[in-house]
Amino acid sequence: MDQHDIPHLKDDRRWMNAPSLGGFLGAACLIVIVTLAAGAARHALPEAVAILLFLTAVLVNAALFGLWIGIASAFGALIGFNLMFVEPHFTLHISQPRDLITLAVFLLVAGMTGVISGRLREQVDAAHARAAALEVLSQFSSELAQARTSSEVAAGAVRGLHALARGPAVALAPHEGKLRLIAAEPRQFLPEARELEAADIAFRRGRPEFASAQGWHGSRLTFYPVSGNGAPGPVLGHARIPSDRRDHGWRGRAIDVILRQTGLTMQRLALADEAEAERRRATAEELRAALLASLSHDLRTPLATILGSVTTLRELRETLPPAAQSDLLSAIEEEAERLARYVEKLLQLTRLQAGAQINMAWVDAGDAAQAAVTRARRSWPQARIETAIPPLPMIRAEMGLLEQAVFNLIENAVKYAPGTIRVSGAVQGRTLVLAVADRGPGLPGAVVEWLASDTMTRVKELPGLGLQISKGIALALGGRLAQPPSAAGTRLEIRLPVAEEPGA
Fold first, then answer.
1. 336-344 — which CB contacts under 8 Å span 24+ positions?
2. Nearest in space to 387 (alpha carbons), one of 379, 376, 396
3. I need a labelling partner for 206 at 20 to 30 A (CA). Which of 55, 197, 251, 363 fits?
4. pTM metric for this prediction
5. What is the reported pLDDT for 283?
């Protein structure tokens, strides 16, 4: 926020605007009281003391009510002093020339007292108003820094406008061709039909629609359209600030700052959304490139095995013993199952790289991990798979994708790390961890660096598609695939955020 957003006092002459009627009446009462009191004691009260009493009254009025009332009080004190202490008494007639000099000096001193005290009072008021406006703007800036959606930005702007206008403030956003209320302060405030009409005019014309003057029929709120990077944004409205308020200028300028900062934040959010969309497109391209790079290696072997076995059976069936024929059929079956798993993985990759909608729901991560272990034991009966999965909290994910990610890690361990495989689960702070550990030789350095990065580009040392799919699923679910330091073998962790459960 720039310091020029809230100008200095010397640049705002509206602080010397017309004083209030209540201020005039209060000042007049004080002058009358001092005049009557001084008049009642004029025989015992020296003239010098009377002058000090009147100057004190002027000083008090100027300090309480401002510059113009201080100047008016100086003339009122002059009249009161003339009535009570200048002969002939109780008239404004001046019989002695020396009294003219006395009254002239009195008026000069009283006027200077009123001007100086009034200016000091107005500067104090200006400082207080400026501090109050800066406090509201500071709070608003903090809320903007934390805002992640346009609704949060609009709600913060409404709170700031409500504090500055000291009246109702609303935010309305376009929805299905109409403006819908998304935030209001006070929260129970509902705009009337005339306010909604004014907001619609401001939205369609793209310019402010000001509130009606006091006493006139029309909208009680002033509305401003806010746009974000060319896209239509919300319409903000606030109560009209009375023009006779001393702090009218400050509050108006602070409101302008809020509106400008709201528009800039809307643009920032729009640009952030565009950047995120570009990032997803880039990730999709990386996945597509990785898919094409994997096809030649991962599909060629099972297809070649199936084709060779079928050809052998067709051409040499009569000469082959039953055991050899059984081995060839088993090879066909195994490679067909292997090929089916590859196709399933390719479908998962295709779904991820296409940016398909993920059906997020509350799922039990422990159930997903157990389902992956059961499936792995059925696929590889000879594998030694241990589990240590305690009760885990519900998380927002898609059950099928989460199970597939754990299954891929188990499959990778079965193929490349013979020995016991341990599948575990834990909660670390606000993160849920599903881990697959083995006692194999570990991953190549290039693969470790690939796991630590956000890229999906395939490295040539990456074995198969399993790790790549698990990483893509973890990213799609809002988490990541990590490899923490391990004393022996490899430990891969799917780390997912733990959201607050509904109703908790």
1. 336/302, 336/306, 337/379, 338/302, 339/299, 339/302, 339/303, 339/306, 341/411, 342/298, 342/299, 342/302, 342/465
2. 376
3. 251
4. 0.46
5. 66
